[in-house]
Every structure is written in C-alpha cells, then in structure tokens.
Write a structure and sequence with these properties.
The chain has 8 helices and 10 strands. With about 220 residues, it is of the alpha/beta class. Belongs to the ABC transporter superfamily.
Length: about 220
C-alpha cells in the first residue's frame, strides 16, 4: 500500500526534515506514528497524501512510484486516501452533515444514496444532534470528530490521521479508536500520528517511531 525507500524531505532550502526513511505498510495493516513534537510526523503524512515531494528516495503508493504519476492521476490517487488534518480544515459555510458528506458530494453521489449512512456515522462520533449546525459553533473536540467522520465516510483505502484524539476526552478517544479499528477490519490501511502513548499501548498495534526526522527501531518494518 505504502512503501518508502531511503526517503528524505526538506522545506525549501532548510536542512532535511525527514532523513533516509524506509518502511512499508501492508494492505490492511494498522500502525501508529509517534515521536516528539517536531520529529516530522505531519511531514511524513504529507508525503503520503501527496502534499509534498521527497527530496531523495522513492515513495510508492498502491504499488506505483509516485514520481512517475501523471498530474491527471493525482486526484484519483488522493481520493483513495482519507486524511484527518491536525487543523481539521472544515468548510465554514457548510453544515456538519454537508462537511461530513463532502467526499461523496465531490463524487456527485445522490444524497438519497448516502443520507442514512452519513447520519449514522455522525451519530457514532457523537454529532447526531448537531447535523445542521455550522462548524463555527462546534467545540474543538466536535470539530475533530467531524473531521474524522469526513475522512472515513467514503471508506478510503488508506486512512491517515494527524493527532486525531488531541482534543477529546479519554472516553471519546477510546470510541474513536474503535472507529479506526472497525474501519481497519473492513480493509482500510490505517496510519495514526499521535503523542498519545496510552492510546498506542491500549491498541496493541505496531508503531513507527520518529526521532529528529529519522525512523527508529525494528518495529518500523512489519
Ligand atoms: N511548512 C513548513 N515549512 C517549513 N518548515 C516546516 C513546515 N512544516 C513543518 N516544518 C518543520 O519541520 C519539522 C517537522 O515538523 P512536523 O510538523 O512534521 O513535526 P510533528 O512531529 O508533526 O510535530 P507536532 O507533533 O508538533 O505536530 C519542524 O522542525 C517544523 O518546524
């Protein structure tokens, strides 16, 4: 699903943020990505969701070297990847329901085909009674849960989540973890960047550990 071979990346002319990273994520696997603030977790996710290019090495997605993808292929590849951004990136003028349904709206699916599923998903993340609200009226934790609902609504092949439980209480964190586990059980490859070592321990899943832009440890390659 995802394969990095000797990958480095830098922002502009700055020194390398990620250095010589190699790992692979098999289809259907579930990993955490841990490391101190600034270790490079978000940067590594950016390489996978094609928001940034490697400065060295090779990144493969779905068995294809991404440097060989044509520009017109990029939207199709991106569509297979659900992303929970650290800063949510919700659309302020759309309701909670329409934000959650956004990937389906972009695909021009008919609302009648997804209305119930989206409502059920929003209920699952505890937003069943906020479906008609605007994002500006939500708490930080509610925004985070909406961002998660939007990322998983179209059952992506890969789910990337950047600190997805940073703003919620332990009970909701557990509930969201169960949502990720359930999605993974249905076949989605999951990679969650987090500081939450308790969640990592509880989940009993392998972790890729970043330190100062380098990947540590034998756990890194499943
Ligand atoms: N857009 C950018 N331009 C320049 N430098 C950046 C940019 N984004 C991140 N960096 C730098 O890259 C390094 C890694 O940042 P990154 O956000 O990937 O770390 P992180 O492990 O996700 O941190 P956190 O847990 O605080 O989110 C940091 O030194 C950061 O300042």
């Amino acid at each position: 699903m995802v394969r990095f071979e000797g990958v480095s990346m830098r922002y502009g002319r700055a020194p390398e943020t990620l250095k010589d990273i190699s790992f692979s994520l098999r289809q259907g696997s579930f990993h955490f990505l841990t490391g101190a603030s600034g270790a490079g977790k978000s940067s590594l996710l950016k390489l996978i969701y094609l928001a940034h290019r490697a400065s060295r090495g090779r990144v493969e997605l779905f068995g294809r070297d991404i440097s060989l993808l044509h520009a017109q292929d990029l939207p199709f590849v991106r569509r297979r990847i659900g992303v929970v951004f650290q800063e949510f990136r919700l659309l302020d003028h759309l309701s909670v329901f329409d934000n959650a349904a956004l990937p389906l709206r972009i695909l021009k699916r008919k609302p009648a085909t997804y209305r119930e599923d989206v409502a059920e998903l929003l209920t699952w993340v505890g937003l069943g009674d906020r479906m008609h609200a605007l994002p500006a009226t939500l708490s930080g934790g509610e925004k985070q849960r909406l961002a998660i609902a939007r990322a998983v609504v179209d059952r992506p092949d890969i789910l990337l989540a950047d600190e997805p439980t940073g703003n919620v209480d332990p009970a909701m964190s557990l509930r969201l973890l169960r949502l990720f586990v359930e999605l993974n059980r249905l076949g989605t490859t999951v990679l969650i960047a987090t500081h939450d070592e308790d969640m990592v321990a509880r989940a009993g899943r392998p972790a890729l550990r970043l330190h100062d832009g380098r990947l540590l440890g034998a756990e890194a390659t499943p």
